[in-house]
């Protein structure tokens, strides 16, 4: 036991989550994509977007918000551009397909830019950037979400948590991976802390009146990355996610979404948009030159001296791969609500 409950092996969680999604009517393909993305998040320590979301997705499938057996549609719009329709199914299914389409185009055109429409919540954006990087491509993934983050100096929810994610292949090693929300924390972390009855980090959330709070039960909205003093950076970056995911794809703007949580309407699709950009290093400096450069870059980065009492200096992804190794060995910790839903 630990502060987040018992630990469970990867295969047990995959089997239970897949069974629950199947019971809720998800097709085998869309269910498998959801489990793959949730398991990625749970293994790298992004528990807010991990296996704990199985219950939410099942409720949305049963309520009709998510189509149980979606049929994806791919429309090529140019040598390096395409649109994928998710048919209002699980967003993970459409997003992984967008990565595949992006890689197909990048092999020919050097880049593959893919917009996704008629989709839904797709979990941790890093799962899709990683999917491209593991096949040798530099990959960017983003999405916009429903309003839950105040603007800088704002007193009302405007942007979603709107992640920006990048990944790149590294010879003989796990990919370089940056997966960051443009809010100080994701909303699912607030919900996780409510379940665990643990305080939030300072400067990450606010009450309905706009006052900062560490009480997860009092939190009504999130603060942008940078908090009270430097939140203009996070608020602007959230707009970048909206630009790519909603404006370029013709989908829903952050303030216009049906909320993911806290609404009686779980039957109307949300028409979420995502954006995937895949780049083939071979069509730029060349794959060998890129491999040499990123190896040298990361070696130099990690060799940089740490401040007294700090360190070691880490590259994006280093912490995630350490957590993954530990959880592959010892199991994934789960909160009590998820343990109960999965019947563990």
Written overview of the protein:
- The protein has a single domain, classed as Ribosomal Protein S8, Chain: A, domain 1.
- With about 350 residues, it is of the alpha+beta class.
- It is built from ten helices and 14 strands.
- The strands form four sheets. It has a seven-stranded mixed β-sheet with strand order 2-3-4-13-5-8-9, with helices on both faces. Strands 11-10-12 form a three-stranded antiparallel β-sheet, with no helix packed on it.
- About 50% of the residues are buried.
- The radius of gyration is 20 Å and the shape is globular.
- InterPro entries: Mal/L-sulf/L-lact_DH-like_ah (IPR043144), Mal/L-sulf/L-lact_DH-like_NADP (IPR043143), Mal/L-sulfo/L-lacto_DH-like_sf (IPR036111), Malate/L-lactate_DH-like (IPR003767).
- This is Oxidoreductase.
- Belongs to the LDH2/MDH2 oxidoreductase family.
- GO terms for molecular function: oxidoreductase activity.
Q: How many structural domains can be distinguished in the coordinates?
A: 1
Low-confidence stretches: none
Biggest beta sheet attributes: 7 strands, mixed
Approximately how much helix is present in the residues?
25-40%
**Which structural class should the secondary elements be placed in?**
alpha+beta
Strand order, biggest sheet?
Answer: 2-3-4-13-5-8-9
Number of strands: 14
SSE string, helix = H, strand = E?
A: EHHHEEHEHEEEEEHEEEHEHHEH
User: How large is the share of residues in beta strands?
Assistant: 15-25%
Q: Could you name the CATH class? A: Alpha Beta
**CATH topology descriptor:** Ribosomal Protein S8, Chain: A, domain 1
* Rg (C-alpha, Å): 20 Å
**Structural shape:** globular
Query: What would the average pLDDT be, to the nearest integer?
Result: 95
For the record, give the distance between the C-alpha atoms at the N and C termini, rounded to a whole number. 14 Å
Number of helices, counting only DSSP H or I runs of 4 residues or more: 10
